[in-house]
Design a protein that fits this description.
It is a multi-pass membrane protein. InterPro entries: 7tm6_olfct_rcpt (IPR004117). Its main location: membrane. One of its GO terms (cellular component) is plasma membrane. The protein has 360 residues and is mainly α. Helix content is 76%, strand content 1%. It is built from 12 helices and 2 strands; from the N terminus they run αααααααααααββα. It has helices at residues 5-13, 22-48, 53-78, 80-95, 101-133, 135-146, 171-178, 180-217, 222-267, 271-301, 317-323, 338-359; strands at 330-331, 334-335. It has a two-stranded antiparallel ribbon. A hairpin with a 2-residue loop joins β1 and β2. α4 (80-95) crosses α9 and α5 packs antiparallel against α10. The relative contact order is 0.13.
Length: 360
């Protein structure tokens, strides 16, 4: 069983497999159309309602989340051959890892915990997306069953500008059921790319840890150890380069999303909207945190070998020099670290206050 099975399962669902036949290409075109069918009208609504900041904030949240996932899928799709080759290379590195059985046992235990985490992470995304889709049903039940309002206005999780009345039958029913598809794409697209990144970071941390212990105990041939370290660094550098646009958009959108979520929770009087926004906000915050956490672990583990002194052994000089430079995952002006995550969360409050001042 490959370490990438869970990731590839998510990617195949959204037509991001390695090899394509004709029906898969049609599927890709349909996916792009589905995003455009909802994304463009929502964007037009945001532009038209720009002076009403509460309406803008309400629709900015689903729009930027969908845009974030769309960038992830497009980045992976355009570089899918490179990503799949990198997965194979990582498997080869793991297969040829240095022979430390104690560490291998510890790594297998950590892999077990990560497998549990991957399932939970995927389920949380599914729950957040489902709560967004079910918002109209929840709204209807509350208004009719509990509050006794039979003349309430139809509710949709999106506001958009179409050439037809989106609240009239049968357009309302059609849009409501059709919107489930881009939500479905977003869940599996984001889950697949996110879990792939977490897997890479965890596997690379394992390799750096094994190298550090082998170098400390001198249980491996020096040339084999140095060669293995070079391969691991090569994979890490390739991963950082491929993930740069995804990291940039993830942190940029995450920063904006936290502000919009906080603003909506403060300003909105709709219980259903607060419920949906809360879970969407928690999901995006969780994404930011785990991206920061795994990238931080990769940066820390990549320099562990440099903590040991091999001053008397000239064979290790190059090894130490390489290990002193940490593998930093970044995108644009964002560094994927826990410090960046803390800065984003701490600055969200002041931006929420600024947005409130526009309404006051």
């Amino acid at each position: 069983m490959s370490m990438w099975d869970f990731t590839i399962y998510h990617l195949k669902i959204i037509a991001c497999q390695r090899r394509y036949i004709f029906k898969d290409k049609i599927w890709v075109i349909f996916n792009v159309f589905s995003y455009a069918f909802f994304g463009i009208p929502i964007f037009l609504f945001i532009i038209q309602s720009f002076k009403v900041i509460t309406d803008v904030a309400e629709m900015l949240l689903p729009f930027v989340i969908e845009f974030n996932v769309f960038i992830k899928i497009c980045t992976f799709y355009s570089n899918r051959e490179t990503f799949y080759l990198l997965m194979e290379e990582m498997e080869e590195v793991r297969a040829n890892r240095v022979n430390n059985f104690v560490v291998k046992y510890e790594m297998s235990r950590m892999e077990y915990y990560l497998n549990i985490f991957k399932v939970l992470y995927s389920r949380i995304l599914i729950f957040a997306g489902t709560s967004f889709w079910l918002a109209p049903i929840i709204h209807t039940c509350i208004m009719k069953k509990f509050l006794g309002h039979d003349d309430f206005q139809r509710y949709m999780p999106i506001k958009a500008i179409y050439p037809f009345d989106m609240y009239a039958t049968p357009y309302y029913e059609f849009l409501y059921f059709y919107i489930s598809y881009p939500i479905f794409l977003s869940i599996y697209g984001s889950g697949g790319v996110d879990i792939m990144f977490f897997e890479f970071c965890r596997a690379l941390c394992d390799e750096f840890d094994i190298i550090q212990r082998a170098a400390d105990t001198e249980t491996e041939d020096k040339k084999i150890l140095i060669g293995h370290h070079s391969k691991v660094l090569k994979v890490a550098d390739q991963l950082v380069a491929l993930m740069e646009p995804i990291i940039f958009v993830q942190f940029l959108i995450g920063s904006l999303t936290l502000c919009v979520v906080g603003f909506q929770l403060v300003m909105s009087d709709d219980f259903v909207q607060k419920f949906v926004v809360t879970f969407l906000g928690l999901s995006v915050t969780g994404q930011l945190f785990f991206y920061s956490l795994f990238a931080q672990l990769l940066a820390d583990y990549s320099t562990t070998a440099a903590d040991f002194s091999f001053a008397l052994d000239t064979d290790y000089v190059l090894f130490i020099m390489r290990a002193q430079k940490s593998v930093v995952v970044k995108g644009g002006f964002y560094l994927a670290t826990l410090e960046t995550f803390n800065d984003i969360v701490s600055s969200a409050g002041s931006l929420i206050a600024l947005m409130q001042s526009f309404v006051a």
